[in-house]
Amino acid sequence: MASIQELSNEVMSIKQTSDQLAQMVGAANTSLASQSSMISNMVQGSQSGQEAVMSLIVAARSLADAASAMKALSRTCDECIANLDK
């Protein structure tokens, strides 16, 4: 059976990974949103172009949701570590 310290170390590792993922996914979201805006300006009047832009917007929203989930996981890890330290 794992000790409380070992468990705390594993949760801290998960927290660090989730923080890193949140940052990377957040940056990807920002980049994709910016690119979709530029592409939208270039394809005005093209139905297929606008459909592609809508796909990019959906993908950017998914990335934003994923970043939010990683931030929530990080907060949960903080709570878990605080409870383990009691």
Overview of the molecule:
- It is a single chain.
- This protein has one domain.
- The chain is built from two helices and no strands.
- By secondary structure, the chain is mainly α.
The rounded Rg comes to 19 Å
β-strand amount = under 5%
User: What is the string of SSEs from the N terminus onward?
Assistant: HH
Total DSSP E strands = 0
Care to give the gist of this entry?
With 86 residues, this protein is mainly α.
Question: Which structural traits does this protein have?
Answer:
single chain, about 90 residues
Q: What is the secondary structure topology, with strand pairs?
A:
Blueprint: H1 4-42, H2 47-84
